[in-house]
Design brief:
The structure is a single chain. The chain is an all-alpha fold. The chain has one domain (about 1-265). The protein is about 80% helix and about 0% strand. The chain contains 13 helices and no strands. α1 (about 1-25) packs across α6, α2 (about 30-50) runs antiparallel to α3 and α7 (about 140-170) runs antiparallel to α12 (about 210-225).
């Protein structure tokens, strides 16, 4: 058991290192990843300010922009990554090496999370200082727990996507695009989730809660800004916990199937192949 855990840890750290090291070797990424996303935040925040909306709405926009960074990282840097690695010829090495695939994907997730936290922190800090948004959460510990559960469930979903997108083959590219823009509406990225319920039907935001980003943002907004949530906070926190465990178990299951097919058939099973 101990050698397996050590191998998992070494594989995870080895896959994390390139992404973390890249942050310090190519510092120009800070301009693209922090300053440019602030332009859309400033535009939406000024719209709410011009409408004389409560300052909490500006906070919702800032939080939504910060969480958008994590969703994009999950889709492009984790979900579609195995598909890109197959095209570059590295995926066969991942399959054949003794390190567990779950450890390799966990390293990708940890490295991507480290990069994205820098972007999200810059967006939140700049937005709060620029628009004077008060941050008075009901509990910092609860806020930290919600954020942690959101990240675990979100990146667990990303690891599951990595296997599913690889099996889809070329359709992975279209699937990633499909899951990008519509999610901004479904999750209430720039407006309260209850507004989506009032504009459409309660079933739409209820279905969107199956996306960790939706439940996480709705819960964090209730803690940070004391705003109205779609569900009570004490329903959303356990939901995030269930999704954290569920998506990680599903990711492990899909990776085992993918690895077994690759070793038994001598090739990766791709649609239309």
């Amino acid at each position: 058991m101990r050698p397996a855990l050590e191998l998992f840890w070494k594989a995870m750290m080895a896959r994390t290192y390139p992404r973390v090291a890249w942050m310090f070797r190519h510092r120009t990424w800070l301009i693209q990843e922090t300053l440019l996303p602030m332009l859309s935040v400033i535009a939406l925040a000024n719209v709410y300010r011009w409408m004389h909306a409560p300052v909490q709405y500006i906070g919702i926009v800032i939080l939504g922009a910060a969480m958008t960074a994590f969703w994009l990282n999950v889709l492009w840097s984790l979900g579609a990554h195995l598909y890109w690695e197959r095209d570059s010829g590295n995926l066969e090495l991942y399959i054949l090496c003794p390190a567990p695939m779950m450890g390799i994907l966990a390293g990708m997730a940890l490295g991507g999370l480290t990069m994205t936290i820098v972007r999200a922190a810059a967006i939140v800090t700049t937005g709060v200082l620029l628009f004077d948004v008060p941050l008075e959460p009901t509990s910092w510990w609860l806020l930290g727990l919600i954020f942690l559960l959101t990240m675990v469930s979100l990146y667990g979903l990303g690891m599951m996507f990595a296997s599913v997108f690889l099996l889809f083959g070329r359709e992975a590219w279209h699937t990633v695009n499909l899951l990008q823009e519509p999610i901004y509406l479904m999750t209430g990225m720039n407006f309260p989730l209850v507004a989506l319920e009032k504009m459409t039907h309660w079933a739409i935001p209820a279905a969107a809660l199956l996306i960790p980003l939706t439940a996480g943002m709705d819960a964090m907004r209730q803690v940070l800004f004391r705003s109205e949530g779609f569900l009570n906070l004490w329903y959303e926190v356990p939901l995030l916990g269930v999704m954290s465990v569920g998506f990680i178990l599903l990711a492990k299951r899909f990776l085992d199937v993918l690895e077994r097919k690759a070793k038994e058939e001598g090739k990766l099973t791709v649609k239309w192949q």
